[in-house]
Amino acid sequence: MTTAHLDTFCEDNLPPRELWPVRDWTGAPELAYPEQLNCAAELLDGAIARGWGDRVAIRWPGGQWTYRELTERANRIARVLVEDLKVIPGNRVLLRAANCPMLAATWFGVLKAGGVVVCTMPLLRERELRYLAGKAKIDLALCDERLRGECEQAFAHGRVTCWNADETAELDRLLSTKASTFDNCDTSAEDTAIIAFTSGTTGEGKGTMHSHRDILAITDCFPRYVLKPSEDDVFCGSPPLAFTYALGGLLLFPLRFGACALLLEQATPPHLVKAITDHKPTVCFTAPTAYRAMTALLGEHDVSSLRKCVSAGETLPLSVFDGWQQATGLKIIDGIGATEMLHIFISASGDDIRPGSTGRVVTGYQAKIVDDEMRDVADGSVGRLAVRGPTGCRYLGNLEQQRKYVRDGWNLTGDAYMRDADGYFWYQARTDDMIISGGYNIAGPEVENVLLEHAAVAECAVVGAPDEERGHIVKAYVVLRPANEGSAALAHELQDFVKARIAPYKYPRAVEFVDVLPRTTTGKLQRYRLREGERPQ
SS3 of 405, please? Predict the structure, then answer.
């Protein structure tokens, strides 16, 4: 196995081998990849070789590209990177744009050239971009012209090259001079392909390093064995491609199976449900909060084109699952993944779904429940979720966090789970969201799920608040639906509502009504900010 990376930054900043998780590629026959592998070449040039050149690969409001057109655009970008921008294999390249065809093309172009992609979300600001650029030692950014300002401020000592809609920006001009062919960099399967930063649900984002082999592995596990797409499917969704959930679900998975990706720059629930009505996609990837919001909008929109819906990023409340199924007839496919693991490793679909359960281990992975000493716990007992398989956590230059996440070769995701006798995994809480109150262990998300069933509640977050008598008490931060006002009477009503549905000791002894909840740029709830006493704005 021969590395192609002349810039050895990524290799130099991998954790020591003894801190790597066990990565097992024997769990599915599709995972037997060659030692020299460029995942962009496999997904694009491989698609042409399979006869898919004239199929539509990417659609967007206003246009479409075939697999051949996408490949040719990526080839031109790779030529610009090598010939004009002097990128050498192993250099990191930051990408900045909303979900659009050029973001996809630049993603593939960087990998074809042997570079390492650092994809960022358009909502990030100068300070955040500067942090990522410094952490990953990035000197070049490819950026949508509309987002140039903060990117240039963050890259004061680097280069920002932009594209725009009318193809008059620097990158577009350079592309117009290039041939549509390119000799792909002969990367090793273990060369780093992307550095994906966690979304910061527990603080500052951490860089996770994933190889070309990892990128293909996620396309050959969850989608192949659980989702089971067809070449006629059109994928859509809301997360930005910088979020690994979206990278797989909105780009890599459809292309692996000869299907089509519908990329939307605006994908809030009202925009997403309208796009489903207008463009008739068949597969949707989004978060529980979006399914909940879209359910309320279905009376004005037609989503009958959908045949499969996937949820990840945060726990799927049973009330959201039930509401969506009642409105559409579709069972949401729940799943748990992690930026550290790259994509979903526990899930279930179709008749295998047990409402309320995340599912069973995806083919290619192993998972178990352990105690704090890494000893297996019995089925039916709550413990820490440990997982391993073809992908795993390798933090960029962060040994302290690496030692916390990987133990004895297993990835510890930070989730408390229970496994039943049939091998189904039931989410309890993030391990730091378990509230110990008066000697009882209380899972904050369980209380949240009950509160969400109340007609007045739009969103909520439940955390432990310090209490002299009980150690901690359960505290609920509640966002109300329109036409409802927070009051002591409503707080008591919510408390009684919870007591009537789960063990009374779990009810929120404190209820605070707020306008918004703290979330990451990908929409994940940041409970740690509430635990630290930060008031929602």
Answer: helix
> Looking at this protein, which amino acid is placed at residue 291?
Y
Strand partners, 265: none
Token duo for residue 16:
């020591």
Whether the CB-CB separation of 523 and 289 falls below 8 Å is answered with yes
**51: left (phi > 0), else alpha (psi -120 to 50), else beta?**
left
Contacts of 344 (CB under 8 A, 6+ apart): 218, 222, 226, 245, 248, 312, 335, 336, 337, 362
User: pLDDT, tens digit, for every residue of 11-53?
Assistant: 999 999 999 999 999 999 999 999 999 999 999 999 999 999 9
Output DSSP code: residue 394: -
Beta bridge partners of 466: 472
HSE of 110, CA atoms in CB hemisphere, 13 A: 25
Residue 503 class from Cβ within 10 Å (0-12 exposed, 13-18 middle, 19+ buried)?
A: exposed
Whole-number Cα distances in Å, 260 to 234, 236, 279, 293: 5, 9, 12, 25
- Considering only residues 442 and 392, tell me which one the structure prediction assigns the higher pLDDT: 392
Counted residue by residue, the chain has a size of 537
Task: Evaluate if residue 440 carries a pLDDT over 70.
Answer: no
Question: Which sequence spans correspond to the domains of the chain?
Answer: 438-531
Handedness of CA 96, 102, 103, 107 (dihedral sign): negative
Query: What does the block give as tokens for 1?
Result: 């196995």
Residue with tokens 């509430």: 530
DSSP H or E segment with residue 293 = helix 288-295
Taking the C-alpha atoms of residue 372 and residue 365, their distance in angstroms, rounded to an integer, is: 21
Mark out the alpha helices in 80-181 (DSSP H runs): 101-112, 126-135, 148-154, 170-175
What DSSP designation does 51 have? T
Both structure tokens of 184: 């792909």
CATH number of 438-531: 3.30.300.30
- DSSP per position, 56-88: EEEEETTEEEEHHHHHHHHHHHHHIIIIIS---
Distance, CA of 28 to CA of 218 (rounded, Å): 11
Identity of the residue numbered 178: K
Cα–Cα dist 35/509, whole Å? 57
The alpha carbon dihedral of 301, 285, 229, 45 has a sign of positive
Residue 306 vs residues 291, 302, 331, 358, 530: alpha-carbon distances, Å: 13, 9, 11, 21, 36
Alpha-carbon distance of 241 to 123, in angstroms, equals 12
Answer whether 251's CB lies under 8 Å from 260's CB.
no
Looking at the chain, the number of H-run helices and the number of E-run strands are 19, 25
Give the lowest-confidence range in 380-384, 497-501, 502-506. 502-506
